[in-house]
Amino acid sequence: MNLELFAPVTGQPEALGQRAVVLRGFALPFMDELLPAIQDVEQASPFRHMITPGGFTMSVALTNCGTFGWTTDRRGYRYATIDPTTGRPWPAMPAVFARMAREAAAAAGFDNFEPDACLVNRYLPGARLSLHQDKNERDYDAPIVSVSLGMSAVFLFGGHHRADKPVKVVLQHGDITVWGGEDRLRYHGVLPLKDLPHPLLGNQRINFTFRKAG
Ligand code: MD3
Ligand code: FE
User: Fold this and answer.
1) Which fold has domain 5-211?
2) Domain of life, per the record (predicted)?
3) Residues at the annotated binding site for Fe cation?
4) Most buried of 14, 16, 40, 192, CB within 10 angstroms?
5) Binding site: what residues are annotated?
């Protein structure tokens, strides 16, 4: 028996809120399929630094897969079916992504999660994400499922107002978080990444978030 894979997935979900949980190591059994799938996505639609409506270049680089992809430029934040960099549709969501997201959502009490968007974020040392809400999706009833790979990050889990003091949560390689219900619109962010290379992924952190956008 492979205890390294077995132990984490049997752990109790860690509650962050009423409908927000961390599933420690939930992605580890999928890793062999996950990493090549990310490379396929990246090859079709490369990571790029987008511009916020305020004119700042994001420190996080991103790409997408699935029907809808999240984008930002001077005109605003939105979901689009065409990748503005390639002019082609975003690559299809790899089957292993969809399967894992569905299983994680079910483990957190959200049955039949069918994401149509997957935003893939890449953090290099120093990259950060300031406090924000995810409000560009059409339907707030569906949860958001997020997967952390590579270097650890300190995640900030805030309240419903920007000024609410956030709780800090360390997210490590293989952790999956699920956010729904009353926790869906909480402010959240990521502190600047430290440079502590990960054995598998080197000096980067990859995070993907599955959403129902359309
Ligand atoms: C809590 N990404 O892409 S994922 C984002 O680690 C984003 O890259 C972060 O926030 C990252 O929008 C955090 C965890 C996450 C995602 C959505 C949430 C937490 C959330 C929505 C509501 C509350
Ligand atoms: Fe977010």
Assistant:
1) Jelly Rolls (2.60.120)
2) Bacteria
3) 132, 134, 188
4) 16
5) 132, 134, 188
